[in-house]
Amino acid sequence: MIRTFEALDGALLIDKPAGPTSHDVVENVRHQFRIPKVGHCGTLDPNATGLLILVLGKATKLSERLMSDDKVYSGSIRFGESTDSYDVDGELTGSLPVMPMTLDELNQAADGFLGDQMQVPPMVSAVKMNGVPLYKLARKGIEVERKPRLIHIYSFRFTTYEEPVAWFRVACTKGTYVRSIAHELGAKMGCGAHLATLRREVSGKFDVADAIDYEDILNASNEDLEKRVIPFLTLARG
C-alpha cells in the first residue's frame, strides 16, 4: 500500500514569544488553518521563547522521535532570589545577599554540571503523577516525591555577568529542566537563584534562525503556510 501525503503533513518551526503557552500555539494554528491534527515537540514554559516545533497532520506520528532530540538553550539566571518554580514565574521563597562572583568562578561552578546526572523534576512542571500534572498538586500546596531522571549536559557556559544576573548557553538532552540547573547553581553559590529568561535555540537539526515568528504565521495565508512546512518524508528520512 502506497501512503500519500498532503502539503500540510509535516513540521512547522515557530519562534514562540513570551506569553502564550505551547498549547496556545498549537490550538491557534490548528484553528486558524483548520488542521485536524496538530501537536508540538517539547513544551516551552509561557515566559520561555524560541524554537517550538509543530507537527501537522500525519507528521504527528513523528512527534516522539523529534521530541527526543538534544536541545540548546540560552538565557539568564538571577542570583540572590529563589522561587518555588525555580523561575521568574514562581513565588519568592528566599532572598540572600549575592557575594562577589566573577565570570570565571561561575564557569568553574558550571563545569560541575557537565556529563550524566540524575535530575529531579520540579514540582511546578507538567510531569504527571498518577495521571495528574505536578503543577496542579503544587497549586494545592501538595509536594510529592518525584523520580529522578537521567540527563546529560554537553556544555554549560556563562558569557556575561552583571550582578546579580548572568547570561549563559547550555546544550543538553531532552527532558532537562534548565530552571532546576539554575536553582541548584544558586544553592551551590550560597545565595539562591532562579531562571530569569530562557530561549530555545536548537532542537536536533532544527534552528530557531529558520523559524517563523508566531504572529507572522497567524497572519499568513494557507499558501504561505504550505511553503513553510517541512514535508513528512524529509522528516522521516532524518
Question: How would you describe the overall organization of this protein?
Answer:
By secondary structure, the chain is an alpha+beta fold. It has two domains: 91 residues, 2-Layer Sandwich (Pseudouridine synthase), CATH 3.30.2350.10; 132 residues, Pseudouridine synthase (2-Layer Sandwich). 26% of the residues lie in helices and 34% in strands. It contains eight helices and 15 strands. The strands form three sheets. Strands 1, 2, 3, 4, 7, 10, 11, 12, 13, 14 and 15 form an eleven-stranded mixed beta sheet that branches. It has a two-stranded antiparallel ribbon with strand order 5-6. Strand 5 and strand 6 form a beta hairpin. The longest helix is centred in the first third of the chain and has 12 residues. It is globular, with a radius of gyration of 19 Å. The two termini are 22 Å apart.
Quick overview of this protein structure:
The chain has helices at 22-33, 63-67, 103-111, 134-139, 178-189, 214-218, 222-228, 232-236; strands at residues 10-16, 38-40, 49-56, 71-79, 81-83, 92-95, 115-119, 128-129, 132-133, 149-162, 165-172, 193-203, 206-207, 212-213, 230-231.
Keyphrases for this structure?
238 residues, Pseudouridine synthase, eleven-stranded mixed sheet, two-stranded antiparallel ribbon, 8 helices, 15 strands
Order of helices and strands: EHEEHEEEHEEEHEEHEEEHHEH
Distance between the termini: 22 Å
Largest sheet: 11 strands, mixed
Oligomer: single chain
Please tell me how large the radius of gyration is.
19 Å
